[in-house]
């Protein structure tokens, strides 16, 4: 994993405070709710989505990206290929499903595919966001495609998105094939010889906030070295660590550091073969894509939420659990048992 840190000492506390304030208090939910909806009272750090009883966690995203993502997925949920494609840049454009290997590298081919998919979607099918991290330059978006859109089960995805002038130029989707169903995942996946190897991060460059880059490379370096204690120092006192495919959740730096040290040989985003592929996000929310050269799981994403001092308050790891057997997941769970 690349361990060299970007130049500088990161974003200042004053800048972090300013950006975090904008993220938490600037949602302007009254303009985001559909006409006739209830007021935004009680949803200070989030907002609703039409047709779905959820409150989106927008506490670590700027107002502009929240508006943008919500509009984008609202159009997708309306099953309109043209309206959905209005949110994509024409050139360059990359869209890859990192689990199935489905890939599109131009506007026309993606529009054609949506034109084939959407007419067959269930009338009440939705694609809705649950958590947004970042800004209108780049972001991580947790979203759910309901059952029937791409198969018999829902797909809970972490999308890595880069924007240019409010248009999507690159989107890479990561999710857990076990949650979708292993046989269903295998039935949709392209053959290994056709699986994309170039995820085209070079077409968008590294635009993430300096503070997010600094934390990413410190964390990735500690995970690469198997140094759980060093990694633990990057977490806030009440931090949450969650690995979605492993069904593991830990609270506090001591428990997190101990788990990382014990599970170093099992987690796909730790060890010498891991590399940071791409970093996205703003000063308080974002994350990074990673690759692993010597693990059955070759790629995934780590989402990060930061506090005003640049400490990690929440880490969420997403990767394809269908690539490992049951015993590997059982071992990951056992490593979380504290004594």
Describe this structure in words.
The relative contact order is 0.15. This protein has 2 domains: about 190 residues, Nuclear Transport Factor 2, Chain: A, CATH 3.10.450; about 130 residues, Roll (Nuclear Transport Factor 2, Chain: A). A hairpin with a 4-residue loop joins strand 9 and strand 10. Helix content is about 30%, strand content about 30%. Strands 1-2-5-6-7-8-3-4 form an 8-stranded mixed sheet. The protein is globular. The protein is of the alpha+beta class.
Offer a few descriptive terms.
single chain; 339 residues; alpha+beta; Nuclear Transport Factor 2, Chain: A; 8-stranded mixed beta sheet; 6-stranded mixed beta sheet; 28% helix; disordered N terminus
Biggest sheet strand line-up:
1-2-5-6-7-8-3-4
Specify the overall morphology. globular
Number of strands: 14
Helix content: 25-40%
Contiguous runs where pLDDT drops below 50 for at least 5 residues: 1-45
What name does the CATH topology of the largest domain carry? Nuclear Transport Factor 2, Chain: A
Continuous helix count:
10
What would the average pLDDT be, to the nearest integer? 89
Short description:
The protein folds into 2 domains: 13-203, Roll (Nuclear Transport Factor 2, Chain: A); 210-335, Nuclear Transport Factor 2, Chain: A. Helices cover 28% and strands 29% of the residues. It has helices spanning 13-25, 63-77, 81-85, 107-117, 177-180, 182-188, 210-225, 228-232, 253-262, 326-335, and strands at residues 46-49, 52-61, 94-97, 103-104, 127-134, 138-145, 155-164, 167-175, 235-243, 248-251, 274-281, 285-292, 299-306, 312-319.
């Amino acid at each position: 994993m690349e361990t060299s840190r970007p130049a500088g000492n990161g974003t200042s506390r004053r800048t972090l405070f300013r950006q975090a304030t904008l993220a938490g208090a600037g949602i302007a939910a009254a303009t985001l709710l559909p006409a006739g909806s209830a007021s935004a009272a009680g949803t200070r750090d989030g907002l609703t989505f039409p047709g779905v009883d959820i409150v989106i966690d927008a506490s670590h995203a700027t107002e502009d990206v929240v508006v943008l993502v919500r509009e984008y997925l609202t159009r997708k949920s309306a099953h309109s290929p043209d309206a959905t494609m209005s949110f994509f840049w024409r050139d360059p454009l990359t869209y890859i499903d990192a689990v199935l290997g489905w890939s599109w590298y131009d506007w026309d081919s993606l529009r054609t595919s949506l034109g084939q998919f959407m007419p067959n979607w269930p009338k009440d099918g939705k694609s809705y966001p649950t958590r947004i991290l970042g800004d209108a330059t780049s972001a991580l978006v947790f979203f759910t495609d309901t059952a029937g859109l791409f198969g018999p089960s829902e797909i809970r995805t972490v999308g890595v998105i880069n924007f240019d002038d409010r248009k999507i130029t690159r989107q890479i989707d990561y999710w857990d094939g076990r949650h979708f169903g292993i046989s269903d995942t295998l039935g949709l996946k392209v053959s290994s010889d056709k699986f994309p190897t170039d995820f085209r991060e070079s077409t968008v460059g590294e635009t993430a906030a300096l503070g997010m880059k600094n934390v990413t490379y410190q964390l990735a370096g500690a995970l690469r070295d198997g140094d759980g204690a060093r990694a633990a120092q990057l977490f806030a006192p009440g931090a949450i660590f969650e690995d979605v495919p492993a069904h593991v959740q830990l609270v506090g730096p001591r428990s997190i550091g101990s788990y990382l040290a014990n599970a170093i040989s099992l987690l796909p985003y730790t060890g010498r073969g891991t590399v940071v592929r791409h970093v996205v996000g703003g000063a308080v929310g974002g994350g990074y894509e990673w690759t692993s050269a010597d693990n059955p799981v070759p790629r995934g994403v780590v989402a990060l939420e930061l506090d005003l001092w640049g400490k990690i308050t929440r880490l969420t790891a997403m990767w394809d659990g269908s690539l490992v057997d049951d015993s590997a997941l059982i071992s990951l769970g056992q490593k979380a048992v504290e004594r």
